Amino acid sequence: QQWLDWSGGTGGLSEGLIKIQVQSKDAAGNPSALSAGKTIYFDIHAPEAPSLILPSSTAAALENSPVYNRSLLGEAFRGKAEVGSKVSLKITDSNNKSGIVTAVLADQDGWRLTVIETQWKLLGLQEGLVSFEVTSTDVAGNSSVSVSKTVYLDITRPVTPDLVLPDVGFKLNGTMVYNKEALGFSKAFSGTAEKN
């Protein structure tokens, strides 16, 4: 049996089942009888850090980070976490503007979360480096250390390309006319567009 002053913390109790009883004393120091006992499970250990798997991107890297547009990031984020824990995703842009999008419960298959378009608009993230940070919180309220990954968010449309038609046709009423052989030439169409 161990008496604790709860205002000073848990007093070094170990994790596991504990029985709680209370007793009061009056101004003269007379103790009351002990209350009926209640048993609880005392959880003091934080869950393991969750894993974070980003949607795949095939774009060339920028600033040593994979490049994503919002369409790619509309696919599901996923990972593993303690079963029953709540996983939160925090998104922060290069101007330190951030928001916690939502939270999901992890199950035997891990966790899976999709950021929908309206959530992206509410975040209003700027183009550039963006970090994605996940934390899991167990049913007792203990939080894990966070895990983060950084990507380059590209939300700017490329410059409209121009089109140069091959000069092997002829004009008819102001419209270029080509036969199939002319349009079958290698590299018949050309123009300029944003690199990559």
Sheet of most strands: 5 strands, mixed
Tally of DSSP helical segments? 3
DSSP strand content: 25-35%
Taking all residues together, what is the mean pLDDT?
A: 79
Please characterize this protein's 3D structure.
The termini are far apart. Helix content is 8%, strand content 29%. The chain has helices at residues 70-73, 117-123, 180-183, and strands at residues 16-20, 38-42, 67-68, 77-79, 86-92, 98-105, 111-113, 128-137, 147-153, 170-172, 175-177. The model has no long low-confidence stretch (mean pLDDT 79). The chain is rod-shaped, with a radius of gyration of 31 Å. The strands form 4 sheets. A 5-stranded mixed β-sheet has the order 3-9-8-5-6. A two-stranded antiparallel ribbon has the order 1-2. By secondary structure, it is mainly beta. A hairpin with a 2-residue loop joins strand 10 (170-172) and strand 11. The chain has 3 helices and 11 strands.
